[in-house]
Design brief:
single chain, mainly alpha, Serine Threonine Protein Phosphatase 5, Tetratricopeptide repeat, 3 domains, about 0% strand, rod-shaped
Length: about 450
């Protein structure tokens, strides 16, 4: 008994050898295939012209008619007779394999089909029958390789396209179930192996990359998790759930620009993600600030010096405005990282210097009441003294007034966090420029 053809060899050879398709022997008659898992394509297809004599072609056609009519015994006899007398017995041997397939004699069918395909990889009906047999016996990976090789050689064939898609779907479902089970059991190496198999199976599908990301994140390998997650997202940007996962990994790995881009697209479809977008934008902005300003932005209680630094870097008008007079010198504004910004904040009237101590209180936490007054002055500075929103109309507005127009959040705290200072400065600047503070 000859050794059946390996799938890899079939895939390599069928692609080139099936160029013979155009010079194939024409089938005897048009006939629909039997309904079932096997195509039973006309054995005369893809044979070189002249392979079958007129009598052999007639004999082969009659045998196929009998097979399609369910007369398997008669068909088997006719195919056996043809194989014994024909110059080229290959199509009759294939007919015998067909008879074995429809009677579920898969072992004998494989003994015929393997050598047939090995002898002539360009013999489409035999190669297809072997692929169908692999699929019927659950050898899905081998079947998929064969269908892919056939599809590449016979493009546009609807049955081969459907069989490839169905086999791929079955394999993907099996692999996904294995990966999910491994993750649930905490067997991360097994989950990773299953995920890699899915990627190898279909690199254009996001499924394998998603499992790779989940396994890597569970192992604490966030960089690897991001790489796989972003690949999956690129393959399917319309999956809202995975967009959230990918954006979260972008945040965890400090890729705030990517988080903003992903979440901004998501918000168009899911407005509930707006808060995540705000967080991503805040973190992106903080990431791009100088170190001293970054520390200020994440401070739980921002000081006057820190507030001054944030105003300097977030509001261009603060650092670029003309100062009418030399600002009063504050002893505690000298020789510190925030000196330049703090001196400018004193000069534009954000903070005053105590006459008795000559200190500005650089390390003193900014209260909400003080922040409300300073933020109004920011809006005035930006607007050049023009009209302000009603919430900023009073010279010393209460924090509750700024809450109404979204410059300060509603809270019971007496002090201001770095984040509140960042967002308040930006909102006050927008209000000063004549826009909506929100």
């Amino acid at each position: 008994m000859r050794t059946p053809l390996r799938v890899g060899a079939s895939a390599a050879l069928v692609g080139g050898a099936l160029l013979l398709w155009g010079c194939a022997t024409a089938p005897r008659r048009e006939a629909p295939p039997l309904v079932g898992p096997f195509a039973l394509r006309d054995p005369a297809v893809s044979l070189r012209r002249g392979t079958l004599s007129e009598g052999d072609a007639e004999r082969l056609g009659r045998g196929m008619d009998e097979l399609r009519a369910g007369e398997v015994t008669a068909a088997r006899k006719r195919f056996s007779s043809g194989a014994a007398r024909a110059v080229s017995p290959a199509p009759f041997r294939l007919g015998l394999a067909y008879a074995d397939l429809v009677t579920s004699r898969y072992g004998p069918a494989r003994e015929i089909l393997g050598p047939l395909v090995q002898e002539n990889p360009a013999y489409v009906p035999a190669a297809e029958a072997l692929a169908d047999l692999d699929a019927a016996e659950g050898r899905l990976r081998e079947a998929l390789d064969r269908y892919r090789a056939l599809r590449a050689a016979v493009p546009g064939d609807p049955r081969l396209s459907a069989r490839e898609a169905a086999t791929l779907s079955s394999l993907a479902g099996r692999g996904s179930a294995d990966a999910e089970a491994a993750l649930a059991a905490g067997d991360l190496p097994a989950a990773r192996r299953a995920a890699l198999s899915l990627v190898e199976l279909d690199p254009t599908s996001p499924t394998g990359y998603r499992f790779l990301a989940r396994a890597a994140e569970a192992e604490g390998r966030l960089e690897d998790a991001w790489a796989a997650a972003s690949k999956a997202h690129a393959l399917d940007r319309g999956d809202d759930g995975w967009s959230k996962v990918t954006a979260a990994l972008a945040m965890k790995t400090g890729r705030y620009a990517e988080a903003v881009a992903i979440t901004a697209e998501l918000v168009k479809r899911d407005p509930s993600a707006a808060s995540s977008l705000e967080e991503a934008r805040f973190q992106f902005q903080v990431q791009n600030l100088p170190e001293v300003a970054r520390r200020a932005a994440v401070s739980p209680r921002v000081t006057r010096a820190q507030f001054a630094v944030l105003a300097w870097w977030l509001v261009p008008e603060v650092r670029e405005s003309r100062v009418p007079a030399v600002p009063e010198v504050a002893m505690d504004a000298v020789d510190r990282p925030e000196s330049q910004a703090l001196v400018r904040a004193i000069a534009v009237g954000f903070f005053g210097v105590a006459r008795e101590t000559h200190r500005v209180g650089a390390d003193q936490p900014v209260t909400r009441a003080e922040a409300a007054v300073v933020l109004r002055r920011v809006a005035l500075l930006v607007g050049g003294g023009g009209d302000l929103p009603e919430c900023l109309s009073e010279e010393r507005p209460a924090p509750s007034s700024l809450e109404k127009c979204g410059i300060l959040p509603a809270t019971t705290s007496r002090t201001v966090t770095g984040r509140e200072a960042v967002e308040g400065l930006q909102a006050a600047a927008r209000a000063g420029r004549g826009g909506d503070a929100r």
